[in-house]
Design goal:
425 residues; alpha+beta; 4-stranded antiparallel β-sheet; 11 helices; 18% strand
Length: 425
């Protein structure tokens, strides 16, 4: 039986540090600058990151605040260790001090160390021994460096990585496929319903939506047969309920396939059976109803279905469910509600209240292309299979993540051997 040797983290890393402790001035373009808020499961979110000048970038580079290929990047501040991933390539981009950099030496594989740091035993130890602060928890690197880890031979490390990474690679592939499918749908929607390319040679008329093709009919949501409702949670909250039926809140309405399982809350079976509204049947348009900073409201939307994120779940009082009774038209609405007209309108309406949010009337006053428009029907038929595939991919990725998370602690403790897993898989 192979012996796993014990090392302190500082003994298997040639570098343990964090990013820049000074925040360079942000600008509209230049070199990406990431904080912990920009970290995703497998990399950075470029959609909201800041950019810095060449001068500031070179200063960061001189101070070694530029991640290199093979570095392990760890969310150091706030939701410590919630996000951790291996840097796949060296790029011209900097990081702030809310992100830690671990650069392994030859004793350990980068991906193995990443998985080891994600294992429950190590995570719990770091949580209890290497974190300071309550309002803003923060990993103390000098304590982190002293953490003792058990490490097998490089051959065993590589075998463990091959199993866990194969699951992560498939999850990442599904994510990229889903991004591509949604981009395809967005591009077609823009061509047909923003640029109106199919109607380029036809007659246009002025409307509350601006200049639109004369042949396209529009109505308010209130004038089209629909269901618009929210759910609710029991008085006293659900913080003490650890299992039951998932209860979806506004924090989960962030786009298709963007559900964060770590934030799931539950209601009891009995309470769920008493609810007359708020059940998610699949393919309804879910709308972020309220929340955010005073005077500032950012609309968000999602669609669930095909068993993702759950076979059965209910909404709480902070999410609207809009259902026109047609899956394809609901899918059309997912893209339509992201147009400038709807986003600006909901942003203005939602920002008026002390607690930002929108109400039923705000939704029902929205003008929309009616479901009987021939081109709306055509788009709905095109987009529905794409949405369905996205949801299927999300469900598969969830199953793969559960398998990975089951195998991870057992592989990292030596309880399971690589050859045993390979035989079963």
């Amino acid at each position: 039986m192979e012996e796993w040797k014990e090392y302190k983290l500082k003994e298997i890393c040639q570098k343990i540090t964090d990013g820049s402790h000074s925040s360079p001035k942000a600008q509209c373009e230049g070199y990406p600058m990431f904080s912990v808020k920009d970290m995703l499961e497998y990399g950075f979110d470029y959609s909201k990151c800041k950019y810095i000048s060449l001068e500031d970038f070179l200063s960061l580079k001189q101070n070694d605040c530029i991640p290199q290929k093979g570095d392990i990047l760890v969310a150091k501040d706030g939701s410590y260790l919630k996000q951790i991933f291996v840097c796949k390539e060296t790029k011209d981009e900097g990081i702030l001090s809310s992100i830690a950099i671990f650069r392994p030496n030859k004793l350990v594989d980068s991906y193995f160390l990443c998985y080891l740091l994600k294992s429950p035993e190590v995570f719990n130890y770091i949580t209890n021994n290497c974190v300071s602060g309550s309002a803003l928890p923060r990993i103390v690197l000098k304590d982190f460096k002293e953490v003792t880890l058990k490490v097998p031979s490089r051959k065993t490390q590589e075998g463990i990585v091959s199993i866990l990474k194969s699951l992560d690679d498939k999850i990442e592939l599904n994510r990229r496929i889903n991004d591509n499918l949604e981009q395809q749908a967005q591009a077609l929607f823009k061509s047909w319903f923003v640029d109106f390319e199919p109607f380029r040679d036809g007659e246009f008329v002025d409307s509350e939506l601006g200049m639109i093709p004369k042949c396209l009919k529009i109505k308010k949501v209130s004038e089209i047969n629909h269901i618009l409702e929210t759910g609710r949670r029991p008085k006293g909250g659900v913080s003490e309920i650890n299992s039951g039926i998932p209860s979806v809140g506004a924090e989960h309405v962030k786009g298709i396939g963007k559900y964060d399982y770590s934030k799931t809350k539950y209601i009891s079976e009995d309470y769920a059976s008493s609810l007359k509204t708020g059940k998610v049947n699949g393919y309804e348009l879910l709308i972020y109803k309220d929340g955010g900073k005073p005077g500032f409201f950012i609309p968000n939307f999602s669609i669930f279905g095909e068993g993702y994120p759950f076979e059965k779940c209910y909404l709480n009082e902070h999410v609207f469910k809009l259902d026109f009774g047609k899956k394809g038209f609901n899918a059309f609405c997912y893209f339509y509600f992201q147009t400038d007209y709807v986003m600006n309108y909901l942003n203005a309406q939602g920002g008026k209240a002390a607690i930002p949010g929108i109400n039923r009337q705000d939704i029902e006053n929205i003008l929309i292309f009616t479901p009987d428009n021939e081109i709306v029907i055509k788009f709905s038929e095109y987009v529905l299979p794409l949405i369905k595939q996205i949801l299927f991919n999300c469900k598969e990725s969830r199953n793969l993540a559960e398998l990975r998370d089951t195998l991870l602690p057992r592989l990292m403790s030596g309880e399971l051997k690589v050859n045993e897993i390979e035989t079963k898989l």
